[in-house]
Write a structure and sequence with these properties.
Layout (H helix, E strand, L loop, with lengths): L3 H44 L6 H4 L10 H13 L3 H7 L13 H22 L11
Helix pairs in contact: 1-3, 1-4, 1-5, 3-5, 4-5
């Protein structure tokens, strides 16, 4: 039976490792959301370069018939197929929808993109003047 001091040291080590894992998952989630926001802006700028409203721009269909929102969701779902840890990182998202009848990768992709919308709107508003609507 471990001594009280030994049990304390084990508990401290466990808490340290667990805390590090949680921080790593939060960082992964942050990077995924940031990347999705950047992808949304990039695709929306391609599909709807003159649209001032980000929420409208991400819903304009591109050359393949899908709006930027769906394109980015589909791309993430496809990539997440090989990264179950990234899927698991998104399970805690308020945007995770257990009622959605799709794969966990699709649920994670939707959560990532939905969480990225606010950041995407800010990036859209901050675009350089030459890319802003009405610029020549």
């Amino acid at each position: 039976m471990p001594s009280e001091a030994s049990a304390y040291v084990q508990q401290v080590e466990f808490n340290r490792v667990l805390g590090g894992a949680v921080e790593a998952l939060n960082e992964l989630k942050r990077v995924l959301i940031e990347h999705a926001a950047e992808n949304l802006v990039e695709n929306a700028a391609e599909f709807a370069p003159d649209e001032a409203d980000f929420s409208k721009a991400i819903m304009i269909e591109g050359p393949e018939g899908s709006p930027a929102l769906w394109k980015v969701q589909d791309e993430f779902a496809e990539r997440l197929d090989d990264y179950p840890t990234a899927v698991d990182a998104m399970r805690s998202s308020i945007e995770w929808d257990d009622g959605y009848d799709g794969s966990d990768e699709a649920k994670a992709a939707i959560a990532i993109v939905n969480e990225s919308l606010e950041m995407g709107a800010k990036l859209w508003a901050e675009r350089s003047p030459e890319k802003a609507p009405g610029a020549r």
